[in-house]
Amino acid sequence: MISQASLLNNSKLATDWDLIVIQEPCINFLCNTCANHHWYVLYPSEHFTNPQRCCCSQAITLVNSSINTNHWKQIPFPSSDIVVMQMNSPYGCCSIFNIYNNCNSQDTLTALDTYLKDNIATI
Length: 123
Description:
alpha+beta
């Protein structure tokens, strides 16, 4: 928690960065992480829909609040270890995957492989 709070309290962070991806974030008893008004927090898709998994989310993505919300969206992904977002511009779209890979299991990579095969046209 100290390192995440220190990162967010850096005054230049919001002016220098558009995205921050964090693995193993600090999640409190309300199933939230800490952030400030400079950032939108993207949790894994299952974070709030699956109560048993919310405190086990291993990845979050912070999107700078200065980025127009019409230019990005979160893409649903069935895992508490992956956050997917897509940014759109006149030049095209860019899909960004924030992946926490547990070294003791291949489940996340298997889910990612299946997802990419099934959704390649939309990402």
